[in-house]
Design brief:
Radius of gyration: 16 Å
Number of strands: 15
Shape: globular
Strand content: over 45%
Helix content: under 10%
Number of helices: 0
Length: 177
Amino acid sequence: FIFEHNGSTYIFVEDFFYLDKKGRISIVKIKEDSYDFVGVVLEEDFHLSFPYVFDSGGEIFMVPETHKNKDVRLYKCVEFPTKWALEKVLMKGVSAADTMLINKNDKWFMLTNISSGDNDDHQSELHIFHADSLVTSDWHPLKQGNPVIFDSLAARNGGLFEEGGALYRVNQIHSKE
């Protein structure tokens, strides 16, 4: 995920360590004609990936994928870009992947890929929840019900971008080959 801060561009990435078979979150700082690998900035006892980073009210937050821990976690940046602290567990007891948070009209929306079965299939179901504040565990499904998308070719979150005032959601398509 690309994040701009104080005139510099950073890329937050899943950094998979094969020796212990788990991902960590690392950062690369982009320069005009090169880059610097800053290093690992977030590590837990379980796998981390999909480091969704965003700014809210001048504070920087990250929601990495933590489905192996069966929760959705919100981390707050303490010292950019290298120090992060757990701010809140937003959901517990859920196998959710690739979670993104959006604030629209003073309401927070969580877009996440939940595996309803026992097989950790996060490709097929996109669920949307809403809350009145960011730092809460009081998230509610949309009135229409979840999943809002049940399609392995369209459900998996891949990121967001804004262009011309419109917000676009990118999806991933995973092959079984």
